[in-house]
Amino acid sequence: MAGILAWFWNERFWLPHNVTWADLKNTDEATFPQAEDLYLACPLAFCIFMLRLVFERFIARPCAMGLKIQANGPQKAQPNAILEKVFTAITKHPDEKRLEGLSKQLDWDVRTIQRWFRQRRNQEKPSTLARFCESMWRFTFYLYIFTYGVRFLKKTPWLWNTKECWYNYPYQPLTVDIHYYYILELSFYLSLLFSQFTDIRRKDFLIMFLHHVATISLITFSYVNNMARVGTLVMCLHDAADVLIEPSLKNICKVNLMISWEIVGPFPSWWVFNLLLILLQLLHSFWSYLIVKTVCRAISKGKVSKDDRSDIESSSDEDDSPPPLQKHHSSATNGTNKNHGTNGYLTGVPYPDEH
After folding, report:
1. Where do the domains of the chain lie, and which CATH numbers do they carry?
2. What is the pTM of this model?
3. β-strand partners of 75
4. What does the record say about its membrane topology (predicted)?
């Protein structure tokens, strides 16, 4: 294990020429970032997650109720034992052949069965209230950490001065503000990384997971090799997008970061940071496209029909009319086997009376 760690933290990869890890050890005169500092982020991530549960329960939910946001979810599908068995035991997305077999068994038209499966899939999605509470938590944290970042950076001489930002790199001492900023940001994204598996699942789940991994990597590596000054700028810029800050700040900071690399010159880890930053930029461009698409739909229709990131399904031909009454059959048509009916639908299931 020691050999693997020594190989991973190779000085010639992570640090500029003629700089060693020994040069970044703490002294009586100055304190530098240490990798072990980041261990604190793990228990703090758990605390942030618990704080989120308290926030959503006692702050976000009352706010939602005050705004008349109800806990009603999507329209529930009409109870049907046969379709429920198919949905839970076989498939949630029946193909055309199976739909035709179910249509013959239930004496329902295919469109009605498709609507039932769509409503049944949506039925498992969280309510608007749950979405509101989740979004309010993220907005509140981003607003707080961005405000802290702006107040902290306003006191620093390297905010708009590229040369000052990289002056004496990597021998720049670690301040309490930078340490707090980094640990809190890392803790929050660690909590998001794991809570993503319990949060509302959206169509961009894997993309969001990749975003969290890239962000955590940037925060961790930039702290360890003491790129903390430029790291604080990137974090503040990143949080700005989540609280609807003017985009002009982004362009100025990007130019600042591009120029800064010419001052220190590239070294191997330089490519890692740039590739991760480019990855974040591509992900943000993708989400910008979804936002513009939603806004355009809202303008054209006069309202927002749905979030493009949502898994809630909808159809222009869907209406609120209930499916027709199913007919009782003693057995399935078109032949059966002992487990399933023709084309994958089930038989031998008691039919509930539907009214």
Report:
1. 36-67+127-301 (no CATH), 81-124 (1.10.10.60)
2. 0.72
3. none
4. Multi-pass membrane protein
